[in-house]
Specification:
The protein is of the alpha/beta class and 130 residues long. It contains 2 helices and 8 strands. The strands form 2 sheets. A 4-stranded mixed sheet has the order 1-4-3-2, covered by helices on one side. The chain has a 4-stranded mixed sheet with strand order 5-8-7-6, with helices on one face. Helix 1 runs antiparallel to helix 2.
Amino acid sequence: MDKKTNAVGWFEIYVEDMSRAKSFYESVFKYKLEKLNNPATMGQQIEMCSFPSDMNSYGANGALVKMPGFSSGKNSVLIYFSCEDCAIEESLVAKAGGKVEKSKFSIGEYGFIALVYDTESNMIGLHSMK
């Protein structure tokens, strides 16, 4: 692996209610998530909605995933979404059905973050440089 590539190439956020979760992420980040074809892994019905992406741009892409045996809110991975000013997305969280855990705060030279919960009890991070 090229040492200059990003270590993360894909992420998945597990959900219980795809419609509710999709609405939350579209409302907070103003993205349009696209339904992906069922990969039919081991005969399971998997529902996936992908975040917008450009494989030639910086950062990792990922999807919301509803899959039997993988419940939301119980994993130990924290994904940070890049924002222009994370206070803006933070201000949309409650109205979209989520909850703010820790409002925007400085992480020194690395910018600012806010920690929030989505509608599926997954904690996510919001990151910006201003």
